[in-house]
Amino acid sequence: MRYYFKRLDESEIAMIKELFVSVFTKEPWNDDWSDENQLQLYIQDLVGQSNSLTFGLYEENELIAISMGHIRHWYSGTEYYINELCVSTSKQGKGVGTLFLDEIEKACKGLGLVHIFLLTENNVPAYEFYKKQRFHELKNNVAFVKEL
In this predicted model, what pLDDT tens digit does every residue of 64-122 receive, in sequence order? Predict the structure, then answer.
């Protein structure tokens, strides 16, 4: 397999949206991204800001993994805050996610970043995947949401 990793920008939004929707509208997430305008705004929020940091992994010319987030300055150092990370459903369980995260780590170190931070649910396969990749669960942190 011929993979290549690169930093993505707004010029790749169409491919990013296609992969994002193909993964997150299926099990176990079942997100409803049928509102094209809301999808465009969301992806633009993640990819099109001055502190956005988006990476992609390609197999030949096909985008098979994306990571969208931003650079966040924190008291303990500057970090990559990942809002969304996904691997094409057909490539999951084949080492692609591990390869992708290894490349993300190298790129972040090259940018002088000291942490990668992300959130996931504890009842989805991604939870075990991140633990296997040596991410540490923050036991004292809690996510809150309030519906309006």
Answer: 999 999 999 999 999 999 999 999 999 999 999 999 999 999 999 999 999 999 999 99
Report pTM.
0.94
Asked whether 68 and 31 are in contact (CB, 8 A), the reply is no
Any idea where the domains of the chain sit in the sequence?
Answer: 3-132
DSSP string across 76-120: TEEEEEEEEEEE-GGGTTTTHHHHHHHHHHHHHHHTT--EEEE--
Instruction: Specify the CATH class of 3-132 in words.
Output: alpha beta
The predicted-structure confidence for 4-21, as pLDDT tens digits, reads as follows 999 999 999 999 999 999
